[in-house]
Design goal:
Blueprint lengths: L1 H37 L10 E3 L5 E3 H7 L2 E6 L6 H14 L4 E6 L4 H11 L4 E5 L3 H5 L7 E6 L2 E7 L4 H13 L1
Length: 176
């Protein structure tokens, strides 16, 4: 009798695990499709020589010749960005890969500077005051990320991204 009960419980556990893996696979497929659909699209003639909110010149194309560059589109008003921006700050401070951020419709340079200081962010930031840069990249949601290598877009993604995922994507963009 016990072996029958054990077989029943093992069969039930297997069925449960199979169902769970099926749902996980469906989630991954849907998440990937939505992420692909919402990702920024590199313009035909992108403006990659920009000036940050502190009036420093930033040449993203030149930076991407040495190693992959993470371009992070965010906003001070974006609820999700409040969780992702500290991760970006950590990545930028580690210094293994260049990070250039674009603050979308986050006020004038003074307001952006105050926000950056208040949050303790030290990453390089371009102020996209009117959202024109983000619109040129066909950005749909913040946060959005683009990885550039040799002046070309290698990857685009959106949403919450853990530090390990960003590091892995940057490393892969550098070796592939």
């Amino acid at each position: 009798m016990q072996t029958t009960a054990k077989k029943f419980h093992a069969s039930k556990a297997y069925s449960w695990l199979k169902t769970l893996l099926g749902y996980l696979l469906i989630f991954i497929i849907i998440y990937s499709v939505v992420n692909w659909w919402r990702q920024p699209v590199m313009p035909a003639n992108p403006q990659l020589e920009l000036t940050d909110y502190q009036w420093q010149s930033v040449d993203i194309a030149a930076l991407s010749q040495k190693s992959p560059v993470l371009v992070y589109f965010w906003g001070s008003w974006c609820g999700v960005c409040k969780h992702t921006s500290p991760t970006i700050n950590t990545l930028a401070n580690e210094g293994n890969y260049p990070v250039v951020t674009i603050a979308v419709q986050s006020g004038d340079n003074g307001e952006l500077s105050q926000y950056m200081q208040h949050k303790g962010f030290s990453f390089t930031t371009i102020n996209d005051e009117d959202g024109a840069i983000f619109a040129n990249w066909q950005g749909q949601v913040t946060p959005s990320y683009v990885i550039l290598k040799d002046g070309e877009m290698k990857q685009g993604l959106t949403g919450i991204q853990p530090l390990w995922s960003l590091k892995l994507r940057l490393w892969l963009s550098g070796v592939l």
